[in-house]
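User: Second chain of the day. Same drill as before.
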Amino acid sequence: MVLTNYEPQAVLKHFEAISQIPRGSGNEKAVSDFIAKYASEIGYKTVQDNLHNLIIYKPATAGYENKTAVILQAHLDMVCEKNADTVHDFLTDPIKLYVDGDFIKARGTTLGADNGLGVAMCMAVLEDKSLQHPPLEIVLTVEEETGMAGAQNIDAKLLSGTRMLNLDNSRGLEIIMGCAAGTTVEYILPTDWEGVVPDMAAYTITVKGLTGGHSGGDIHKERGNALRILGQTLAALHQQMDIRIADISGGMKLNAIPREAQATVTIPKSEADKAFGILEKCRTGFAIQYRAVDSGLEISCTASSAGKVLTANCSKNLIASLVLMPNGVQCMSTEIEGLVNASCNLGVVEMLPEGIRISAMPRGAARFYNEQTERQISLLAQLTGAKVTFMQRSPAWPYNPNSDLLKIAQACYTPIFGHAAEITAIHAGLECGLFDEKLPGLDIISFGPTNSDLHTPDERLSISSTMHSWEFLQALLKAL
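Assistant: Same format as last time:
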């Protein structure tokens, strides 16, 4: 075992155990079964629903029997991203952990500390008989990363808690008190094919080397989006010559900023030199645009082949979709410095039998912001002939300035961390908004250790911050 000699061992041993079990979104049955068996074996009532959500009940310790129940909440699934040269099957292979100084990392893949570390803290709470706490209802949900289907469908009648500690927070020194609403967008552009004419040559244009990141937490960092860069590059060619698209793909998850994308296109053989000049201009321009945040950006062009291509109109509509789809920060808060109020991530493009599917994720500080972005996408779909569907709308979690739970948390925080907690809201999505809707009056805070570069293979978890978070959780449960 890799993490045996690191503290808090009570938490890290469970994190390493679940890291051996594939648990991408939609593939949580095995890890859910593993934890359900574990909880039952150590004596706790466990409810597992047909989606594989778990609710585990731990009775109050002596002296806390008359306290109201507290909900501990985390999600079982992880985002499955890997480097192009990494051989890894997320359906069968364990995450390969290693330690680099203060950080736990994975070899070429996402680490899964989002939110495996929160799950591990819940397992540690279940196991530790010495903790002092009220009655606990531990809720572990599925498919958080792909639309929060688990939280949307969990039976709230099984919960009696009036306070909830959400452990899906990667910001270490902060206590989170609000999050954004989210929408899943499926935009399908119909395809119309034709043969390749003799005077056309095929090339594959590839964008890679980008950092990527979390489509909520990192969207304000202005990192390059491989699909947008590819779209702008294709648009630059389309302005100057007859270009047809034979194939296109890019991105892996709609809630991760895409790091790689490629398209196979045909251009007139007589204009090859002109096309190479346009590509070089794009390469130079984007290198300057992203030199401070994505210095590894590469745009390459290699000779290829194509048996059929999209028609001129269909190619034009696809390029327009990539360039005009809302992407990145749409507006910033005028009240909280540095907080994004609305954004959209152009996440995945893939060719399917029914057409070209573009998946995107708008986020907003309130539902109203998402409605504006959805209208933009709907109008774009009308112009291009695409069919657009908006799914899995998750509500925002509004800030509660009168939270009694926050006051208790602040009192517990300072002795452990040596300073007062920073209280903030985030642009990422948390399941707190759904629980807030299901359980009116529920008092919620979110916290967790420092975990950086989520949704990328550079994800890394701070060991020292994990220790502080575990100490804080113990102290908070005792104070409740």
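Residues 272-289 form the longest helix (18 residues).

User: Great, on to the next one.
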